[in-house]
Known about the structure:
Elements: H1 12-24, H2 29-51, H3 54-58, H4 68-81, E1 82-88, E2 93-97, E3 101-115, E4 124-135, E5 138-146, E6 152-153
Antiparallel strand pairs: 1-3, 2-3, 3-4, 4-5, 4-6
Protein name: Nuclear transport factor 2 family protein
Region (Disordered): 1-30
Amino acid sequence: METEEKPEVENESASEEEEQLVENDPPSEEELEIRRKMLDVISFNQLYERDKHVEPYMHTIFVSDEDYEKTKSEIQERFKNFNIDIDILEEPKFVEVSDTYGVVQLKIRSRATRVEEGHSYRNNVAVHEYSLVNVNDEWLIESIEVLEDTVEYID
């Protein structure tokens, strides 16, 4: 009777443990620097929005030349109609980080301190997901998405 040799099978739980170790490894110095730059642009973006500085705000976002004036007009309109105070409630979660692209989630409380007549705003707590791109060694916000399943209305 012939015996058939079975190929060695890796211990699956060992490879799962290795994956967990990789996920829990501290970020490299390079990644920490990228994270810092991404958080800097998000902070400046929020500061310029709070203070209603349109031009500096525009320099924190990625917008094509052909959409620049339209986007600027939309931002001016928003700044005119609302004063929104925000508070970051938790440490940022870095969903993706590379030297060209990143995704950061922030849990934010947003409260309107002024709403122009004819407009409405509901104060809320929600996770905002910032997608950022590195353009010529400058980090810019490509998009900000409120994760709908995280929205809690307050007040």
